[in-house]
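queue> pop job 88
queue> type: inverse folding (structure -> sequence)
queue> payload:
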């Protein structure tokens, strides 16, 4: 079983570039599962769904938290997914096991109509034409890429030059990923670069230092701050007639993921685009989509209506 674990962790590091802390957690969890199997005279190759479920019951009896048990199940799932791909197993016995009832706070998201209204309102938000162009670009980029707001405001202008079809995003821990741009985002980006460069040229002529950031700001960091954008997106929501309580920079990131999933995108592709180290972080969007589909059926299906 040690060979399974070591080979799996090496693949996580080499192929998926999993974070060191994620690999360490997986290693600890899988070694605990292996030790439990050994005490029962079993191994990874022979374990079935009932075996994995029995292990989770054992973990609960040991007093482990729901979060820890959820993480262990995720580690076991990923191990067996890898084993299946390598041909070590014909199945993944953990694939359809329900999680240990961890209370999930599903991320708030927006429907496509609400996003469209936000993007349209951003065009008119700003004291000057330059502000309006910038605000449109901010919103289009955020929804088109699913970037974290910190990744966007700290993006260097050099990353956006040359009308790119893909943009380089530097994420947590300095990890880089390439994210495709939609045609509206490319158009908004080109418009903003022209306005930004014109403003920068005037600033440099006036003796001010040039900014390396795509979205320059007057703060200590030299770029637009997350706090500024948080206030801005709330104001855009009011202008769009969308409840500002449900609109934050992260809400657009959630909308990006949920709408991709609804359109048939693979969960692992979404994981890569979002920059998630662990697939379990991305799996939450399947639950968000389930809730939306459930609500849609209750609203639209004739047999689901209360005839009163």
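queue> result:
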């Amino acid at each position: 079983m040690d060979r399974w674990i070591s080979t799996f962790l090496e693949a996580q590091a080499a192929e998926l570039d999993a974070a060191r802390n994620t690999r360490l957690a997986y290693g600890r969890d899988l070694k605990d599962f292996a030790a439990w199997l050994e005490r029962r005279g079993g191994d990874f190759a022979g374990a079935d769904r009932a075996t994995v479920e029995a292990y989770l019951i054992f973990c609960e009896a040991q007093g482990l938290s729901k979060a820890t048990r959820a993480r262990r199940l995720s580690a076991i799932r990923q191990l067996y997914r890898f084993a299946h791909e390598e041909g070590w197993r014909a199945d993944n016995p953990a694939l359809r096991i329900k999680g240990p009832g961890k209370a999930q706070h599903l991320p708030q998201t927006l429907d496509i109509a609400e996003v469209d209204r936000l993007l349209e309102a951003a065009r008119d938000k700003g004291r000057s034409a330059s502000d309006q162009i910038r605000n449109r670009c901010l919103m289009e980029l955020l929804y088109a890429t699913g970037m974290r707001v910190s990744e966007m405001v700290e993006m260097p202008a050099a990353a956006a030059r040359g009308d790119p079809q893909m943009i380089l995003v530097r994420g947590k821990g300095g990890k880089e990923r390439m994210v495709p741009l939609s045609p509206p985002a490319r158009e908004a980006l080109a418009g903003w670069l022209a306005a930004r460069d014109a403003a920068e040229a005037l600033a440099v002529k006036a003796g001010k230092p040039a900014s390396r950031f795509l979205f320059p700001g007057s703060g200590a960091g030299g770029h637009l701050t997350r706090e500024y954008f948080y206030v801005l997106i709330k104001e855009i929501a009011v202008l769009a007639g969308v409840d500002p309580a449900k609109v934050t920079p992260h809400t657009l990131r959630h909308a990006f993921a949920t709408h991709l999933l609804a359109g048939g995108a693979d969960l692992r592709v979404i994981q890569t685009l979002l920059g998630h180290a662990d697939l379990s972080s991305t799996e939450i969007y399947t639950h968000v989509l389930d809730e939306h589909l459930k609500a849609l059926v209750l609203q639209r299906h004739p047999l689901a209506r209360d005839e009163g």
